[in-house]
Design a protein that fits this description.
With 256 residues, the chain is mostly beta strands. The protein has a single domain, classed as Exo-inulinase, domain 1 (Jelly Rolls, Sandwich). It contains 1 helix and 15 strands. The strands form 3 sheets. Strands 1, 3, 4, 6, 9, 12, 13 and 15 form an 8-stranded antiparallel sheet that branches. Strands 2-5-14-7-8 form a 5-stranded antiparallel sheet, with no helix packed on it. It has a two-stranded antiparallel sheet with strand order 10-11.
Length: 256
């Protein structure tokens, strides 16, 4: 009888959680205040260090594959030393997988960007792409120069988890930088979490995430969770909004 009661309680709890996730809405996890202070950044563009792994050299996407078919080469447009998102083919990710690293990446929101909120230059850098659920751990890319949205989903945020310490966004049409230190999560043999993931991020030279401890992945709807994984690729998001596609350049990484 005791074990039957325990099983029933577990089953009931599982059904409750499943039903709660199904009825959840995006707005349930959106935070709009306090609004991060706006800071004008300096010029932080720089060449890759001698020990860096060059993920994009301005010439080709040899280091990248399509997320939806990792046997296929990445098919975003490469011209004039930049990559431009092609939403018709979806996300791209690195061929190689990584654990802890320092990442440098530059992006540009189109100067003629339209839309508002999340539908304005939306992309994302998944510091570890996962093949299930929310798809990994996302550092948000978005135009928030003069564009309001929920602050745990604006540029510089760890999506739906950590509000950036400042809004360091430059105007659309300007090249912008992320410099990131990523510490991947560690798991025990039984799949339980041993050490959570951590991230420190500078946006245009301004600290926006200070050794933040992630609660899990970064879903659009629902709460973050951890599932056991090892080294993972880095993914660039081709977001499904209707705004103009953004561009990336000068992507390099140092394994730590």
């Amino acid at each position: 009888m005791k074990y039957n009661l325990i099983f029933t309680a577990i089953l009931t709890g599982s059904c409750f959680i499943a039903n709660a996730q199904q009825t959840a809405k995006p707005e349930d996890t959106e935070i709009w205040k306090p609004i991060p202070k706006v800071i004008t950044p300096g010029n932080t563009f720089r060449d890759a260090p001698s020990d860096a792994i060059i993920l994009f050299n301005g010439k080709n996407l040899d280091q990248w594959v399509l997320t939806k078919d990792t046997t296929a080469k990445a098919k975003w447009l490469v011209a004039d030393d930049i990559i431009t998102v092609d939403k018709s083919v979806g996300d791209i990710q690195t061929k190689r997988s990584f654990m802890d690293f320092q990442l440098h990446i530059e992006y540009r929101i189109p100067s003629d960007i339209t839309g508002s909120g999340q539908a304005r230059g939306n992309s994302g850098i998944f510091l570890a792409a996962l093949p299930w659920g929310a798809g990994g751990y996302e550092l948000q890319v978005l135009d928030n120069y003069n564009n309001a949205t929920y602050v745990n989903g604006q540029v510089g945020s760890i999506y739906k988890q950590s509000i950036p310490l400042a809004n360091a966004a430059l105007p659309p049409g300007k090249w912008q930088t992320y410099d990131v230190v990523w510490t991947a999560p560690r798991f025990n043999e039984d799949g339980s979490l041993k050490l959570p993931a951590r991230v420190t991020a500078f946006h245009n030279g301004i600290l926006v995430q200070n050794n933040f401890e992630l609660k899990g992945d970064t879903p659009y709807i629902g709460q973050p969770t951890y599932r056991k994984h090892g080294p993972s690729p880095i993914k660039l998001q081709a977001h499904g909004d209707k705004s103009e596609p953004i561009s990336y350049r000068n992507i390099w990484l140092r394994e730590l």
